[in-house]
Structure formats: structure tokens, C-alpha cells
Amino acid sequence: MSLWLTLAVNSIALGGLLFLLSSGFSLIFGLMRIPNLLHGSFFMLGAYFGVTILSQNVNFWVAALASGVGIAIIGGLIERFLLRRLEGQVLPQVLLTLGFAFIISDVCLMIWTGDPWQPATPDHLRGALQIAGLFFPLYRLVIVAVAVVIAIALWLMVDWTRLGAMIRAGVDDAPIARVVGIKVSMLFTLIFALGAGLAGFAGVLGAPYLSVYPGLDFEMLPLALIVVLLGGTGSLLGALVGSFLIGFLYNFGQAMFPDLAYVILFLPMLIVLVVRPQGLFGRAIS
Amino acid sequence: MSPKQLQSAAIAIALVALLTLPVWMGNGYYVNVASQILLFAIFALALNVLVGYGGLVSLGHAGLFAIAGYAGALMLDAGYGHFAAIVIAIIVTLASSAVFAVLALRTTGISFLMITLALGQIVWGIAYRWASLTNGDNGVNVTTRPTPFGISLAGAEAFYYATLIIFLIAVVTMAILVRSPFGAALRGTRDQERRMNALGYNVWLIRFLSFLFSGFWTGISGLLFIYYNQFISPQVSALTSSAEALLMVISGGTATLLGPIFGSIIVVIMKNVVSAYIERWNLVLGVIFVAIISFMPEGLVPGSVRLWRMGWQALRTRWNGSAVRQPEDGSR
Predict the structure, then answer these.
(1) ipTM of the assembly?
(2) Residue B106 located in a structural domain
(3) What pTM value is reported for the model?
(4) Domains held by chain B: number
């Protein structure tokens, strides 16, 4: 397989992971307007949970789901008992989530040490798929497939279900939504937990590819941030497009300008900010 | 004494204490810690212009701090003199502040914060990954300190006095800015953006100029930092540094001149003490953040006063017994 094709496949796989990470961030930050600086930490913590569960010879998908649920519970508790009390106060929310991010990163360093962990790709995901005479690694394709399935599920949930309508109502006008009997607070806890869980799940899914190491949290947080700012806050389609764009930019940048790869990632975000501050698919804020 | 006189007296005492600090501190180590506190106080004061008076929370100021530091260090490394290095570093920092401001001021509130965070990460990315320019993780050494008017700043005491002079200039300019009509306008944009607009103020320009002012002093503190530390590494531009600066601003109480100064005293001393015993500064920093938000949302200094009062009142009620039971609240 040529270098370019390998890069393209890796880009799409990274895009899928980024979508899982940033779709949750888009819900929490874009929809609920909570500056959740814990999102990268959820990703890393989920990955560490997954690595630990996997070392007990548990099925890969069970491990990914279990740590996703675990992170969802942690996220839900933080939202319910701490963030809830700070509704609408940006600075305290930032400090609280940032404080937890530092605590989590240090505790992870204590428990899982400073060495990187990289679980083996599960057996049933090894090998390659032959399409049109070209071989594609199965694991990478599966990441993309999972991301696409979740993207569709989220889209259906937010745009087409009663639950989604209640969420949108709660975001647009919480007091009125409460008046008509929507339990806005509970919904918000649920969304926060869902977003956190997706990040944790993505952490495990990506572990055989990215590996887990200290500092992964603050590496993933800006990525989620640029995806969401690029795609438009609160827009799932924006998060999807942004994820794949950043996935490509990261891999191709890494190959062509290794020194500047990290900086190149931010370029589209900066351009979009200047030209179209609400993001590619964001609603204009009046 | 009237409150005004009391205030003047307090300022005079603080000034005398600061001026004679190396005499009564004795030990060079503590004088160095004092220099560190002063230079970080300048950083915190600069950040407070935006956070406290402008209502614009920046999480990218460590980026500006690092830009000044790296620009100065790299110029010195390339063989330029101190004067050229300092001037260029300030120009570069001001230009970067302008870029930061233009991008971040497209929005306010939570988006402003996120964009400054992203911009700070870009600086970190350059410092850490663009090794051919910044020497990557190995950092850049600054071998000499400048000698203004032929006075060597190599010793702890001389450097302390140089930092003190710059610190005092910073405090005075901040005080002037805050009390000027411009400062009032800045607070106006924080509290009532629309009304300020309606009154004919150019809200964007006010914020932009404040950002430049903040960036300027951040750059000065960054330069002081490289001369103090004689070394700069990507760690300086990390999110942790921005968070520390924010902690200094918030722990002392925002939108006051004294708050950030007290904040930097608290944070720098704590960091020095904690780092001497354990390697878990990040954990401590995180716990402090969570504790402040949970128990003293108004800042450490006002918060401690409140908690102290509450504790004092509880004690008094117990001493007085059932004879004079004070109402639990509402007495204040």
C-alpha cells in the first residue's frame, strides 16, 4: 500500500476517534455551554480503565463499553453534585473542571506510572480487508464504522426523538421548558454523562492505535476544542466534518512538516474564526 | 485615623518592608523567592486587567509570557545584546498580543476563553515541537543578566531591587489605568456591553487596547522570568502555567489591585513549599481550585475573612451560652 493511502486510512481512523471525542464535547460545550476542560481527561481516564480491564483478558468491546459507562457515571456525578451548583457561572466552572483535570492527570500518573500503555489490537480486529485490490486494516475501518454509527444515532436522537426535542427545548429556554414539565436538570446530567461516556469509550477504542500516556489528556482537549470551534458549536454535522478534516491535517502534517504538524492543526480554526466566527455549520449567534 | 489615612499608612509600611526586604530576610534563597513573587505578581496583575476589569477570562496568557521569554532568550542566544533582545521581545509580544486579541475578541465569554486556550496551546506546540527554532524540550539557556547603568544584576539582592522597581512601575500604571476614564469604560464593557455600545463607546477597541496593555506587562514579566531563571522551556507555556496565573488572580480576589499580588504571594510560596516536599504540585493545584470553588467562590482573601468571621461568631455564641443566643444569620 502506498504511503499516501496509508496516511489517508490513518487520517480517517483518527477522524473517527476525534468525532467520538468531540461529539460529546459539542453536546456539553456547544449545546449546554459548559466549558468542560475535563474532556481530555475523560478520554485518558477511559483509556486507562480500558487498559486495566483488558489486562484481565476481557473482550475488547466489553472493556470499551464498561469503561465508557464508568466514565459516564463519573461525569454524571461531577455534573450533578458540583457543576450544577455553578450554573451559568463561566469562571467557576472553568476552575472546577480545570482543577479536576489536574487532579485526574496526577492521580493517573500515580496509578498507571509515566510509562505508555499500548494494548494489542484485539485478535478479531487484526488483518485487513481487501477492497478493489487494495488492503485496508480492519481495525481502522471498524473505528470509522463505529463513529459513523454513533454519529447517526446521535443525530437521530437530537433531531428526531422526543428526548432530543426536550433537550433542545431545555437548551433554548430552560425556564419555559421547566414550566411545561421537562426535567431540564436531569436531562443536562444525562447529556453530560453521555458526552463523558463517549470520550471514555473513544479512549479505549483508540488505545491500541494512540496508546495511553501521561499528557494525553491535555493533548486531546485542544483537539476536541478545535474540532468544535471549526465545525460550529453545537452542530453534530460540524463536529463530524471537523473531525475528519483535523484527522487528515494531523496525519498529513505529521508526514510532511513534522516540526509544525501540531501548529498546522490550528490553522483552519483560526481561518474559520476570522471568516466565520460561528464555525462552518454553527448557528449565527445574534 | 480615617480609612484613607489608614490606607496610606498601610501602603507606606508595605513599601518600607519591600525596600528593606533583603536586610531582614537575610538569606539569599528567600530574597530569590521574593523576586519570584514580584515578577509573577506583575503577570497576575496583567492578567487581572482582562479577567477582573474586562470580564474576559484568558487561558492563553502563559503563551504570551512564553513568547516574550523565548523571543528574549533566542535573541540573546543568537548573540544580540540585552537592549536589542528586550526591545525585540517586547515588540514581538505586543504583535502576538494583537493577533491573540483580534482572534479571541471575535467572541466573548466562554468562547473567548476557549480560543485563548487554543492559542496558548499553539505557542506550546511551537515551543515543544518546533525543535529547530526553540530547541524543543531542552529549552534555551540565558547565560547573563543585563547590567543597567553599569550595575550588575547577577546577585540575588540586585536582581530583587531591579524587579521591585519594575513591579512598582507596573502597580502604578495599573492603578492609573484602573482609575482613568478608560478603566471605567473597560469595567463598563464588562458589566453592560450593550449600553456602552449605545453610549457611543467602541467596545471592541477598548477591549483590544486592554488586551495589548495586559500583553505588554505579561511580556515584561516573561522577560523578568528568563533573567531570573536564566532558562526557559516549553513547560512555561503549558496550560498549567496559565492556570497558575489564573489561580493567582482568583485566589486574591479579582478586579482589585491587591488581590493578584496576594494571590501570587500565596501561589509562589505554596509552590515552593509543596515542591520541596512532594512531586505532586498538579494535584495540589487541582485540589486548591476545587476547594476554592466549593468553599470560597469569592476568592481566598475575602473568603478566608468570611469563614473566619463565621467561625468567630460560632465560637462567641458558644461562649455566651444560651443567655444571648445570636440569630444564625441575618445579623450582618
Answers:
(1) 0.81
(2) yes
(3) 0.84
(4) 2
